[in-house]
Write a structure and sequence with these properties.
Strand content: 25-35%
Distance between the termini: 71 Å
Number of helices: 5
Radius of gyration: 24 Å
Structural class: alpha+beta
Strand order of the largest sheet: 4-5-13-12-9-10
């Protein structure tokens, strides 16, 4: 008996169905639960600028609904040009021990020392005392206002004008934000820390972070 491989099949448990052949809808059939874009009211604008704005808004809604492939992030990372304006001198000193690089969505923070050698910085009652260090995340957007940020604990924030002001005060641009991390968290050394960015028209994307220490050379 010859082996037969079905092109259309449902995995055991019923949660995933694969369509490798034709999916045919008969007369009177309907489709429910399929993603749809936000309702868009008819427009009465008649200037070229208004039409362009309406078209761009329509495209964004289609991307957000998953009906058009969303834009990909073009994120880069960099040291803050003026770290002296960081919350504390200890944070600025810690950041001076670090260089940052990104490969795809993997961010590497390389220290010229060990984490234990970093200073404890006091970021106040809200953020507490930790081995804080900061660096810039360049989103590639003209402004970070409205960008949604989620850390690996599930805590969410929508970046606002205050975040852009903080970035520009550190010599970055309004399309950047400053990310402060608690370097003593062992998950950074293990490469298990991450954050997610999402914005209008842009795909929700996770970025991982890993700290690499430079250990002192062994004595002869």
């Amino acid at each position: 008996m010859s082996e037969y491989n079905a092109k259309n099949y449902t995995e055991q448990g019923g949660e995933v169905t694969h369509i490798g052949g034709v999916l045919e809808f008969g007369e009177g059939a309907s489709l429910s639960g399929f993603p749809g874009a936000e309702n868009i009211k008819p427009k009465t604008t008649n200037t070229a600028a208004d039409i362009r704005a309406d078209l761009n808004a329509l495209i964004a809604k289609l991307k957000n609904a998953g009906l058009v492939i969303p834009d990909a992030w073009s994120v880069s990372v960099l040291a803050c040009p003026t770290p002296a304006f960081m919350p504390t001198s200890e944070t600025a000193a810690n950041s001076g021990h670090a260089t940052v690089a990104i490969d795809g969505t993997a961010i590497t923070i390389t220290l010229d020392c060990e984490v234990k050698d970093l200073a404890v910085a006091d970021h106040g009652s809200t953020w507490g005392k930790h081995k804080w260090l900061g660096f810039g995340v360049r989103t590639g957007l003209g402004s970070i206002e409205g960008v949604k940020f989620t850390d690996d604990t599930g805590a969410e924030a929508t970046l606002a004008s205050d975040d852009a002001t903080e970035a520009t005060a550190l010599g970055l641009s309004a399309g950047d934000f400053v990310l402060y991390i608690k370097a003593e968290d062992a998950k950074y050394l293990a490469g298990e820390k991450s954050f997610t960015l999402w914005a209008d028209s842009y795909a929700k994307t996770e970025f991982t972070m890993q700290i690499v220490e430079t250990k002192p050379a062994a004595s002869a």
